[in-house]
Amino acid sequence: MEFDDVLDAAAPGRVTRDADVMASYSVDWTRRWSGRPRAVVRPESAEQVADVLRACTQHGVAVTVQGGNTGLVGGAVPSDGSVVLSTRALRSHGPVSADGSVTVGAGVTLVELESLAAEAGYTAGLSLASGESATVGGAASTNAGGARVLRYGSARQRISGLRAVMPSGDIVDRRTSLVKDNTGYDLTNLLIGSEGTLAVITDVTWKLVRPLTDHLVVAMSFPDVRAAVAALPTILQLPQIDAVEWAEGAAVSRVAEHSGTPTPLPAEGFWVFAEMGSSLVGAEPVLEALMSGGLDSSRIAIAESAAERRALWSFRERITESISTAGVPVKLDVGVPAERFEEFVGSITDAVHSVDADAVLVLFGHFAESNIHVNILPGAGTFADDVAGALEDAVLELVLSHDGTISAEHGIGRAKRRWLIRQRGETQLAAMALLKNAWDPHRILNPGVLLD
Ligand code: 2HG
Ligand code: ZN
Q: Residue 3 C-alpha to ligand 1 middle, in angstroms?
């Protein structure tokens, strides 16, 4: 039988080759990455995923695994001629159990997970601006981070088990909420963050957490990065702190312009957003300490009601969207040790302008983790491939010279693959290749992503 017939038989009625339908699976959200798949298949069960993978393995056809297609490093964008295996139709979910865990299909979105959690009096503890589309399976396979890593950890810390299908079609079932289970290789944690290169995650057991009862958001516009870095240890003492984010004033102004809403504080300088589970009265001693440390009260904005909090957060959350309306950026999600943050942020403009003097830099990120989202927009038009490559090289070289990481939370995908060896070295890359060859000997899963 021809491969197309085998694929149709593996997932009856779930395969499409319609160019218009396939278009939305073929390009990423930023429009930087695209590919031409031969088909899109949307299996509805782990068993159907197994049949699809068996068919692709037997015929040597590459598979690109895709969740909500919200990734930023090209990891879910199809290689030419591959089958896109969309996990979005894997939508089963069990009840929230007495221990606060719930097992959901990989295609459940993060917003849906949050509603399930809220109905039972919990929160999922993972907050991404893309949560309406981003899926639980995507969050697991990329070890997603986001704004609340400070309190609840990355996806890895929230996941106690999963089910996944190997390229052979064998199903590894580790759907467990056991906190103590010391029984050999930790396959769950091997697959979390493996970017769909070893197996296809079909279900995830999520550890929910009790939400904070009070909520307060404070934005502070410090005169410069130095003042903000000096204040960080005090900011971290805010009661029940669960997010500390940052943005350069220019990034905040961009949102103001894009949304038509004026900034609540002087836009220039270095902004820090902090969210905590406290009343204003509870936060006051720390806010007073910040003011005695030199932060003028006119540079502090406070949001108490849900509507005010949403409005204030939007100046941080909508930066990505405001960048995308301006053009196709080169995006680099990097991190450096806290003690080198100021020096790194101070050097990056020169590094970028040494490649392209007209490039426009937008800097923001997660302050508590020294995570920097470097977005570089072209002065005009779009970057030529060689310029984009040189910009990436300049920034990533600077990151390594500051003992940092080339990917703090978005992963390696296609975007940073050629840099991985510089970060992890030959021995570790060889160790990863051993795992890849053992799990996926025909190398059908996500070729070109993470590893060669
Ligand atoms: C965020 O923190 C996301 O808002 C997106 O990780 C970052 O667009 C980006 O560079
Ligand atoms: Zn981020």
A: 39
Give yes or no for residue 32 CB within 6 A of ligand 1. no
pLDDT tens string 264-311: 999 999 999 999 999 999 999 999 999 999 999 999 999 999 999 999
- Nearest ligand 1 atom to the CA of 129 is 4
Task: List pLDDT tens digits, range 305-356.
Answer: 999 999 999 999 999 999 999 999 999 999 999 999 999 999 999 999 999 9
For ligand 1, whether the C-beta of 254 sits within 6 Å is no
Task: Check if 331 has its Cβ closer than 6 Å to any atom of ligand 1.
Answer: yes
Count Cβ neighbours within 10 Å for each residue of 259-290 and write b for 16 or more, e otherwise: eeeebbbebebbbbbbbbbbeeeebeebbeeb
Domain with CATH 3.30.70.2740 in the chain: 326-401
| Closest among 113, 303, 154, 119 to 214, alpha carbons compared | 303
pTM of the model: 0.96
Rounded to the nearest whole angstrom, what is the distance from the C-alpha of residue 350 to the centroid of ligand 2? 23
Give the domain 3-86 fold: 3.30.43
Would you say domain 101-207 falls under CATH 3.30.2160.10? no
Question: 97 and 175 in contact (C-beta within 8 Å)?
Answer: no
- 88 close to ligand 1 (CB < 6 Angstrom): no
Architecture of 216-320 per CATH? 2-Layer Sandwich (3.30)
